[in-house]
Amino acid sequence: MHTLIQYQLVRGFHPLIEDVKSPKIQGNISVCQAFDLAIQLESDVTASLKGLIQLADSEGDRHCADFITSTFLQEQIQSTNELWHHLTNLKRMNDNEHALYHYDKQLSKKFAYDIKGMNLRN
């Protein structure tokens, strides 16, 4: 987000920042449902980026289209792909609590965080 704001400021624009709507969740959800929602949010962001690229192309602003593509689009595709891999692995476990525990432990090693400060240690 910071990179996009800086880009807009350098080009002489005033960024308009809107909030990202969170999905409406009724009660508790499963891990698979949480990953489904995360994939949907990532897909929405990717669609917005593609729309911005199309708008830039239609206005003849190749620099903006290239900036969005090279800076954000590749990361979005990789993030969505990673979420799909996690979801596939979780579905293979078929709600086996022991398998979920070990998968969670494996993820916590890869994405370690400090609970007190909520800061990533990577």
The name of the CATH topology of the domain at 30-110 is Ferritin
Instruction: Please give the share of residues in helix.
Output: 55-70%
Total helices: the number is 4
Structure summary, number of beta strands: 2
The CATH superfamily of the domain at 30-110 bears the name Ferritin, core subunit, four-helix bundle
The CATH architecture of the domain at 30-110 can be named as: Up-down Bundle
Q: What is the N-to-C order of secondary-structure elements (H for helix, E for strand)?
A: HHHHEE
Compute the separation of the termini in Å.
20 Å
Q: Quick check: average pLDDT?
A: 84
* Most strands sheet: 2 strands, antiparallel
Record the strand order, biggest sheet. Answer: 1-2
Provide a brief overview of the structure.
With 122 residues, the chain is mainly alpha-helical. It is 68% helix and 3% strand.
Question: Which secondary structure elements does this structure contain, and how are they paired or packed?
Answer:
Blueprint: H1 2-10, H2 31-58, H3 62-93, H4 97-110, E1 113-114, E2 119-120
Antiparallel strand pairs: 1-2
Helix pairs in contact: 2-3
How would you characterize the overall build of this protein?
The chain has 122 residues and is mainly alpha-helical. The protein has a domain at 30-110: Ferritin, CATH 1.20.1260. It has 4 helices and 2 strands, in the order H-H-H-H-E-E. A two-stranded antiparallel ribbon has the order 1-2. Strand 1 and strand 2 form a beta hairpin. Helix 2 (31-58) packs antiparallel against helix 3 (62-93). The model has no long low-confidence stretch (mean pLDDT 84).
